[in-house]
Specification:
It contains five helices and eight strands. It is an alpha+beta fold. The strands form four sheets. The chain has a two-stranded antiparallel sheet with strand order 1-2. It has one domain. The relative contact order is 0.19.
C-alpha cells in the first residue's frame, strides 16, 4: 500500500503528486512537455514545407509565462508546482486483523480534508521543468530564483548531481 497514488502516465511515477487524484489536477512538467512537443512539431512542419500554424498556436499558448505563473507559480515557496486536490494530513495506519490468522491491513487515513491547491510540500526537479524545457524566457524574473535553488545542497544539489526531490521530504509521502 502506498500513501499517495502514483501517476504512471507522467513517466515520473516516483514523484509525489496531489494526494487525491482528480480531473482538476494540473502537472507543471506535462505542460512543459506539451510546449516542447508543439515546438518540435512546428519545426518539423516547416522543415517538411507544411503549415506549422496549429503547432505554433499551441506552442505560443503554452509559452504564455503569465498564464504559467498563474497556474503553477507559488508566491509562498517561490517555486513552480503541480496543482490538485491535496492534503499533507494523510498517513498509513495498520488496522488489526478482524479474524485470527489474518494479516493486519494497512489503510490510508486522512486527518485533514484535501483542498484544491498548489502542491508545494514536494520540491523536486519537476519544479525546474519550465527552465529545463525553455518555456521561461531568459529575462524571466523567476529564472534567478530557480538558478539559486538549483545550487543549494539542502534542496536538489548533491555531490553526485541532482536529486529527484528535496532531501527533507517525508519518505512516506509516496
Amino acid at each position: 500500500m502506498q500513501l499517495n497514488p502514483k501517476t504512471l502516465a507522467s513517466g515520473l511515477d516516483d514523484y509525489p503528486r496531489a494526494s487525491h487524484p482528480s480531473e482538476a489536477e494540473r502537472h507543471v512538467d506535462l505542460r512543459c512537455w506539451l510546449y516542447a512537443a508543439a515546438d518540435s512539431m512546428a519545426y518539423l512542419a516547416r522543415l517538411l514545407h507544411r503549415d506549422p500554424t496549429r503547432f505554433e498556436v499551441t506552442r505560443d499558448q503554452l509559452a504564455d509565462e503569465e498564464l504559467l505563473n498563474e497556474l503553477h507559480w507559488s508566491p509562498h515557496t517561490q517555486t513552480y508546482a503541480d496543482y490538485g486536490l491535496h492534503t499533507d494530513g494523510v498517513r498509513l495506519v495498520r488496522q488489526p486483523p478482524k479474524h485470527p490468522g489474518e494479516s493486519p491491513r494497512v489503510v490510508r487515513s486522512v486527518t485533514v480534508p484535501p483542498q484544491l491547491k498548489l502542491v508545494t510540500s514536494a520540491f523536486g526537479y519537476v519544479s525546474l521543468f519550465p527552465m529545463l524545457l525553455k518555456v521561461l524566457r531568459p529575462e524571466s524574473d523567476k529564472l534567478g530564483k530557480i538558478l539559486q535553488d538549483l545550487d543549494k545542497p539542502d534542496l536538489l544539489w548533491s555531490p553526485y548531481g541532482l536529486r529527484l526531490e528535496k532531501n527533507t521530504i517525508n519518505l512516506l509521502f509516496y
